[in-house]
TrEMBL record:
Subcellular location: Cell membrane
Annotated transmembrane regions: 20-37, 43-65, 77-97, 117-142, 147-164, 440-460
Name of the gene this protein is made from: lnt
Any one GO biological process: lipoprotein biosynthetic process
Taxonomic source organism: Salinimonas marina
Top-level lineage group: Bacteria
Protein name (Swiss-Prot/TrEMBL): Apolipoprotein N-acyltransferase
Length: 465
């Protein structure tokens, strides 16, 4: 709202206003990236800050583009229609250009407001557009002391959101017992070969009291030893889980020594369905391989040039191979799970593509030890809550050092483990059936509505002129 009022006072500086707004927005919101660069990237402080400035300057281009096009093509009276549409387009571009970084979208701020009722209908990007509409409208109308349209827009948008919160889009199908393990392994020792067995023993000992649950989840890359080299240990754990009539899903790194390809994977140990025994097979089909890889952390663009420059560009496990965009659900003890590894949970379209009519649970695993005591893990959890609301599915989120949490289909955290604490947590998960409007239609209805508003507003403006 402040940025729009500044644009109203200085309409000749649309791009600059949007870019400065974006620079502050991302500079404050993704400062957790600096933690991983400074603590694990091996760069001096000045270089780390410089990289952050470059990243935030790039991300600020998207709101700058939205502000510029709004100012360039429309008069202030039509900004409440134009800016939400250009903002929506900018956020869509940000989600896929250069593999995409759809983090910190403004819609996530409404998770605990009446606007949360809109998430199952138009998704987070749509809620962002609604929020921009309200903020832009209030900025334009209040500048002209037009209080009635400002109040009406607030009442309409937030009132309808409150009403939608009382709509039950899905129903509970059944309840299962699920447990998750949080190893709290220091990032500095995760890839030291002599620590492989102690880490694996830690996860196994924490799992022993949990074997009476239907499903047990370990976080991303919980098993630090390459899958091929861990086969004997995995088969032993597979047999033990099957004997207890449960299943364990764990993150692990798989490396093909012939093709020299590496995958960030999830595998299932123990029962696949209620009638089977130990079903784990190396390179079997009941697995998931991460699709959206994190730039620098999991793949390095122009690696022949960048890797020699600094330790940041040569981190352990930074040459992963991309998995398919759409993959079959994991089958674990009769349950079907749609996985998302680490920041894949921030891509709603990919998540929706991998949820089928018989999918039971949305599973997301991560290792947020990279981000220390920053607000990154809390934002990550908030994103997972939003996906639960959008999809009408329970989300279970297992992380190495927090925040491990159970989230119901309404986006509510039912239980969680504290950060930076080794432990385990068990809870009942209500599996749902049904479909939210957003999972059915995605962003298409909101995109069409905004495009009609954009084209209609421009046509009306040209006709008046």
């Amino acid at each position: 709202m402040v940025a729009v009022r500044q644009l109203h006072r200085r309409p000749d500086q649309g791009f600059k206003t949007g870019w400065l707004f974006g620079l502050g927005w991302f500079g404050a919101g993704i400062s957790w990236v600096h933690v991983s660069i400074a603590d694990f990237g091996g760069l001096p402080l000045a270089a780390s800050i410089g990289l952050m400035v470059v990243l935030c300057s790039y991300l600020a281009l998207y709101p700058a583009l939205a502000f510029y096009l709004t100012k360039r093509l429309f008069k202030p009276a039509l900004w409440p229609l134009a800016l939400p549409a250009w903002w929506f387009i900018g956020e869509w571009l940000r989600s896929w250009v250069l593999t995409g970084f759809p983090w910190l979208s403004v819609g996530y701020s409404q998770l605990n407001s009446p606007l949360a009722g809109w998430f199952p209908v138009i998704g987070e990007t749509g809620v962002s557009a609604l929020l921009i509409f309200v903020a832009t409208g209030c900025a334009v109308w209040l500048t002209k002391r037009r209080f009635v349209p400002a109040l009406l827009s607030l009442a309409l948008v937030f009132g309808s959101g409150w009403a939608l919160q009382h709509v039950q889009w899905v129903t509970i199908h059944k309840t299962v017992d699920v447990a998750m393990v949080q190893g709290n392994i220091e990032q500095s020792v995760r890839w030291q070969p002599e620590q492989d067995q102690p880490i694996m023993n830690t996860y196994r000992s924490l799992t022993q009291p949990l074997l009476n649950n239907d499903l047990i989840i370990w976080p991303e890359a919980a098993i630090p030893k390459l899958e091929y080299l861990s086969r004997a240990w995995l088969r032993e754990l597979d047999s033990e889980a099957a004997q207890q009539q449960t299943a364990i899903i764990s993150g692990i790194v798989n490396y093909n020594f012939e093709s020299q390809q590496t995958w960030n994977s999830l595998i299932v140990l123990g029962q696949q369905d209620k009638e089977s025994g130990g079903d784990y097979r190396y390179a079997g089909t009941n697995r998931y391989e991460k699709h959206h890889l994190l730039p620098i952390g999991e793949f390095v663009p122009f690696e022949d040039i960048l890797r020699p420059l600094a330790p940041l560009f040569d981190l352990p496990m930074s040459s992963f191979t991309r998995g398919d965009y759409q993959q079959t659900n994991l089958l674990a003890n009769g349950l079907r799970l749609a996985p998302a590894i680490c920041f894949e949970i921030a891509f709603p379209r990919q998540v929706a593509t991998n949820i089928l009519n018989n999918t039971d649970i949305l599973l997301t695993v991560s290792n947020d030890a990279w981000f220390g005591h920053s607000h990154g893990p809390a934002q990550h959890l908030q994103i997972a809550q939003t996906r639960a609301l959008e999809m009408g599915k329970p989300v279970i989120r297992a992380t190495n050092n927090g925040i491990t949490a159970f989230i119901d289909a309404n986006g509510v955290i039912t239980s969680r483990l504290p950060q930076f604490q080794q432990g385990a947590i068990a809870d009942q998960v209500d599996i749902t059936r049904g479909m939210t409007p957003y999972r059915y239609a995605g962003d298409l209805p909101m995109a069409l509505l905004l495009m009609v508003a954009l084209i209609g507003g421009y046509w009306a403006q040209q006709r008046r002129q």
